Amino acid sequence: MAKQLKLRDRDIQSLTSDFIEINSDKSLKQLDQVRYNFPYCKGQMCQGLGLIHVKNNKRKKIFIDYWLNDNIPRTLASGKIIKGKSKRFFMKDYDNKNFNVRAIEEEIRRLREEYGNKNNLTWDMDIEVGEQLKKRNRYSAQLGELKKYTINQCIESYVASNMPKITKPSETLNKNSIKEQLRYLIGYDHHDVNGKIISRQDIMKVTADQFANGVIEYKEGYDVSNSKELFKKFPAKEFSKIGFGISVYDSPLGQSNILELDDYECRNYLNTLTQSPGTKRVIKESLSAVWKHAIREQMLGKKPPQNPLEMINIERPTNTAWTKYNTAEFSQEQLNGIYWKCEDYKDEFLFQPELIQLNMFCGRRKETLLNLNWDRDVVWDQQEIIKDGRKVTIYGQVNIPAFINKTKKPDKFMITNNINLVLQSILRQREIHSWTKHVGWMFPSIRTPNKHQLRKGNENNTEESRMKDVRGLWSKICEDLELKDVAMKMFRNTFTNKVNETEESKSSYDTITITGHAETDTLESSYLNKKFSKVSKAIATSVDEEYENIIKIRKIK
After folding, report:
1. How many other CB atoms are there within 10 angstroms of residue 314's CB atom?
2. Cα 197–Cα 198–Cα 201 angle in degrees, nearest 5
3. In sequence order, what are the beta bridge partners of 29?
4. The pairing of beta strand 214-218 with beta strand 204-208
5. Same structural domain for residues 58 and 75?
């Protein structure tokens, strides 16, 4: 049985219910909810208004009971025939700010104007059906709008979101991937800005945060601070053709409806633009990323079609300019020469020689090493191990976080004697060049902004303060030693082969712990995260001693 309540905000707001009902035998019955009506509303516009107070969540659900004139004859239990039926429509929950008494009265007035009888307090139309129909109409209208999204609009949304990863939208692509995708999606086309010919990319600056996520920024002086302003100032050109030097955004493809995109049109675009399989793959990946982003942002409707780019297979060439380096390795003479040339150039090329030497002794990728951080990744933990009846020192380990590793899995390598010498050389350089002590990167850049201002409390650990490459020194070394057809990636091959050739290397589990390779086998992949075993320590020190024998004596031509 309903209880009575005054239609006033203070009464509804302060409402407390005991959720108890007294039975006829005077026993108590626990209730899940209590219904209230408003006596004031009888004979008024709000006739039938009620409130249900829910026990578990304390919701105050506002409803209206109404008589629907549907002219359908119904026979009551008494035998009386009536035309119409009683209905209940739930509005919103009571809220003192958003749905108070005044808002309730306004909502009832709206409902009566749309569905009520003009002559009495009955209703000619079903409120529930009418409101649901309105929702469906709004949804249909939204679907109509969804179908109007062009590929360019999806690209704009993708760039505005800072180009997130497909599988991990909470993270963005790395800096290089963002630059590469921007090139083909919105790059190339040039605009005249105050007499200076520039492209959209010219005013975009891509950096990286501490977790190697790419970050899009905008250079000063162009009156552009975000992507919305970028595309407003640099609108799409109306090119009538597709060809090299014309981005997706400035091509006819960009102007088309994304829901109309099919594999035929994608193939035609790729084949017309370029014959390079590598370029085709990048463009395919870029467009596919835009498609996946459009799905996440609900730009392709409730049931998006299959990604047409997934049906396009771009064959990888068997041989490329880099194929020959996949299995090539350095000779002992070459390793010796490279090591000592690095020693010669330590003052001229700050921190670059140490990078090459570390690359030689640990066999990790150059790009990974360039992202190492002193405070985060270097763990000093000196310990002695017995090897062949003698003591060998391991000085600790260098941890490689997953987000800086190509495999996206954590890795590590031991600080053996040779690696320790490299790290100590870096520390000496940091003492000589005091500004580097306030840069967290293992390999700081000499182009670090405002070096003279760096001190404790004013550190610079931005992407700008990190070394990006060692091409200058590497070219110099190759020229001095007359090295032909070599690449730094061969350090990894050389290191891996030396690990595999050691007497201690009998299990792949210990081997991959030293080389850092992530096998597809689950056991081997998880093994990378475990502590170094006695065998792996023996392997690491054996390889280190072999390198020591190679570089111990400087060979002079």
Report:
1. 16
2. 170
3. 21
4. antiparallel
5. yes
Distance spanning both ends of the chain, measured CA to CA: 106
- Chain centroid, CA 426 distance in Å: 33
Domain boundary among 146, 177, 194: 146
Structure tokens at 415: 């600080």
Q: Give the structural domain span for 343.
A: 326-551
Neighbours of 443 (CB within 10 A): 23
Cα(481)–Cα(338) distance, integer angstroms: 8
In whole angstroms, what is the distance from residue 481 CA to residue 407 CA? 33
Comparing C-alpha atoms, which of 36, 33, 37, 35 is closest to residue 54?
33
Residues 332 and 269 in one domain: no
Return d(Cα 548, Cα 418) in angstroms, integer. Answer: 7
Pairing relationship of beta strands 81-93 and 190-193 according to DSSP bridges: unpaired
Q: Are residues 123 and 155 in the same domain?
A: no
Domain identity same for 131 and 220: no
Distance CA 185, CA 250 (A): 9
Global pTM reads 0.67
pLDDT in tens, 28-68: 899 999 999 999 999 999 999 999 999 998 999 999 999 99
- Tokens of residue 524, six digits: 């081997």
Q: Which of 5-14, 70-79, 401-410 has the lowest average pLDDT?
A: 70-79
Same domain, yes or no: 414 and 361: yes
Cα separation of 352 and 345, whole Å? Answer: 9
